[in-house]
Each structure stands twice: as C-alpha cells, then as structure tokens.
Amino acid sequence: ATYQLVCEDREAPRGLRAECVELIFFDPTGRVSRNSRFVLFLAMMQWLQAWTGIFPNWYVALSRQTGSFHRFVSGVVIFVLVPASLLRLVVWFVKPAGIGVVQRFAGLRHHLVDSVLIISWSLWLLMASISIATPAAVR
Length: 139
Fold this sequence. Notes:
mainly alpha; two-stranded antiparallel ribbon; 3% strand; disordered N terminus
C-alpha cells in the first residue's frame, strides 16, 4: 500500500512508525478517509444549494414532465435516495462510528454506504438537470 512507502522503518516494530499509523490513506475507518468523506459530503451540500439556486422550481418542472426517464428520476429521489439518506443520518446520530470501527448497514460497511449515497445524489442531480433543462420543462 502507499502508506508503506512513506512510513516504513526497519527499526520500528512491525515495520511502521507510531506517528504513521493515523496516516493510512486507504483505510476506510481511518481519520484521513473519514475526514475526506465528510468534506465530500459538505461539498455535496454546497452543490445542492447552488443547484436549487439555479433551478428554484425544479420540482414543478420535473412534475410536469412526462415519460419514463422523468418518472424514473422522480421515483428514485422519492422512494430510494431520501429514505436511505434519512435512515443513514438517523443511524449516524444514534450510533456514530469511531476511528477504526466498522458498522454494518443493510449488510454493507458504513463507509461504502456513505460513498454510494454521495455518488447516487450526484448522479441524481445530473439526471434531474438533464430532465428539467429540456425545452418542454422550461415553458
């Protein structure tokens, strides 16, 4: 792994210096990974705020659209993303995971669920932008 190139020390026990244990970049339960996911989450919230500023009546434009793609976009946010995100938020409030702790959420590790939710919301915003930027929705 990458951290071995930076933190290897032949004199230290098990090959790692003590100050390098927290710098393991690819450990999903490590400090760096958790902070990176949190920063991505904050960036996602800022992007959502800017997106709703650009499209203030997005829900009206999306509800006026007909077709399977537009229904799919509406259904995904209503039936999948919002409930999954709220459930994950409640689980995080009730039992937050600490450094080095892996929790299971629907059979998946919590950091994988967080990453999938961030990617899903990003893709949904892209699909919704495509859907409501059509000339029929602008009328």
